[in-house]
Give the backbone structure.
Amino acid sequence: MDGNLLPIGQFARLARLSVKQLRHYAELGLLVPAHVDTDTGYRYYRRDQARQALSIALLRSLDVPLPVIAAVLAGSAEALDGVRAAQEEELARRRRTLTALRRVLAEGLPATPVRVVTEPARTVVVAREPAAGAEDVARATSAAVARVLPSSGVPQLIGLFPVELGDAFEVRVALVSEQGTEVLPGGTFACATHVGPYDQVPLTAHALLAWCVERGHPLRGPIREVYVSDPATTEPDHLVTHLMIPLEDRA
C-alpha cells in the first residue's frame, strides 16, 4: 500500500470531517477516494487531498450549499456571490424581526384601533407575483409594484394578500386606474391604520384579525393594504398604510 495513502478514519480526523460526510461527498463526486480496496471496499485518501477536504469543511461551516462548494472547487469563486447575497438578505430579515420584537416588548401586543368603513368599487390594473411563504412576501410585493407602477403621476396602490400565508400563494398589487381591466369590489370593511415601516405591518394585521375574530366576522380576505404614503419621499417611521378586511354577516 502506498505510504501516501491514509485510511478513511484517519483522513476524516485530519480533515475534521466524519466518515459519513466523506462517504456522502464521494457519492456526490465532491471528494472521491484515491483508492478503494476491491476486496474490502475500504477507502483511502491521499495526503494532498486534505487541503480540499478542509476547504469543504470550512465552506460548510459558513453554510455554503454543496452545489456551490463544487463550483468553487472547480474554480468558480464568483459562485459565492449568491450565497453572500442570500445571507445578507437573511440577516436583514432577522434585523427586521428583532425590530418588531423590540416594539412588542416596549408597547405590548398590538391593540391598534379598528373602525368600520365603506369602500367604493374601483377599476384597477393588477400585477401578480408568486410568493414562496411568508418570508417571501416583501420580495413578491416589490416585484408586483415594479410591474404596475406608472411612469408618472402619484399612484394609488393597493396590496392584496391571502389571510392565510401558506408555503406558496399569490401576491397581487392593484393600481387604481380608469384604464384598468379589472374591478376591485367595494363594500364594508374593518380597517386599521398602520404608521411605520412596511416590515412591521404584520403587527397591525394581528390587531385587525383579532378584532374580527372577537366579533365573529369570518376572515374571508383578501387583506388589503392601501398605501397612503410615497416611500420615495416619506421616512419609514412615518409611512401610513390602511389595512382592510371585508366584512360579512356575523357567524
